[in-house]
Amino acid sequence: MRVRWFHVGVLSACLAAALGAQAQPSETVSAAEAGQPVAQFELGSIYFNGKGAERNPKEALRWFRLAAEQNHAQAQYMLGLVKLLGVGGVEKNLKEGMAWIQKSAANDNVDAQNMLASLYLQAKDVPRDPAAGVAWLERAAQQGSLTAQKNLGFVYRKGELIPQDLKKSFQWNMAAAQQSDMLAQFVVGEMYYLGEGVEQNHAEAAKWLTPLADKGAQNAKLILGKIYFEGQGVPPDYKRALLLLHDVAIRGSGQAFFELGRLFEQGEGEYRNEKEAVAYYTQAVKYKHTAAAKRLAEISAESPSSGEMVQSMEYVENLNSAVRGNKLAQYNIGVFQYLGKGFEQPNYAEAVKWFTLAANQGYAKAQYNLGTMHENGEGVTKSLAQALKWYRLAAEQEDAPAQYALGTMYRDGLGVKKNAKQARRWLQRAADQGYGPAKSALARR
Hints:
- By secondary structure, the chain is mainly α.
- It has 26 helices and no strands.
- The chain has helices spanning 11-19, 26-33, 37-49, 57-68, 73-85, 94-106, 110-122, 130-142, 146-158, 166-177, 182-194, 202-214, 218-230, 238-249, 254-266, 274-285, 290-302, 304-310, 313-322, 327-339, 348-359, 364-376, 384-395, 400-412, 420-432, 436-444.
């Protein structure tokens, strides 16, 4: 996990955000000259930005100092930033800059508190002091600073700069998550899943991770897929797990390929498929996944047939391409499953799954095969309406077997009202391509 520390390299952006864009009404000038610190800060901001008056960093610094000396926390912070950066022709002075930022932080300015924490934790311009850094983060976080809450969650979980404290990490990540921060919400879900700093609770993990997965967060999809596969805290849902893990895997995640291997090795019914498990483990190995390599070696040693499976490169290569969306490979995997090639028996439901993926990408042969499976009730509930739909899609792409099938359905009134004209039209189109059964059908009419 990475944390975006607030550091001196981005201070110029902070200056613009903190100053905003003010105008220079006469009331502001009068109030500033009368010694009102709020007006003095606003006037300093006007001169610094050059909006409402000609840009004049030195004059800006003068007004910031006047407000800062009256204990105006934001002016103290801005004066400190300008001195730390040495911007706008202002001489850089780290010692003075730090002194003003410390005064601002002591006056509960959360920006200053976060700045000091970052400087102390990263040893930027000051000696590293993790205890001081965390103390300033704590003060900012207690005031509701999202940045501080996330950084505290990170440092307490990481345990590098300070002793690890998973309970405190969870506490601060939860505080940030409740402010709708997506990274913190993911961390809360992950910690519930792992039982880090909180009692393990997969149902709570799913609650936090589901909205993130719905928004496309890949890490959330990976953990959520594992939760639905393992069925701990939620009912097992292999279909949902497969969809989630597949979506992550095709984007290049070795861990997701490994989890897909586990799913097909340990799943139930149509989701228990040793050959697919081996194929997914093989793909995970390409991403240098150690556990996948170990499991493949174990499978090879368990039985000769399993060893042969590991070497079945045709299926593996097709599956690797299929999960990346290659429609020809998806069709080929469907054929493997339909024929039971390399399996103990055909798996029509699995064949339907792969044919559908290819058919939805417009692959005519897959569309025709889906038509026959719907017509015969193989792997799906028999549906002549669905058969007609898929035959038509393939026939319109000049697939001769589909044109013949569509013609016979019109001829015999299967799933559609008998229509001799439509029957002849489609049979003729198939015959014109030299399709023998269509020629024979026309000759008998």
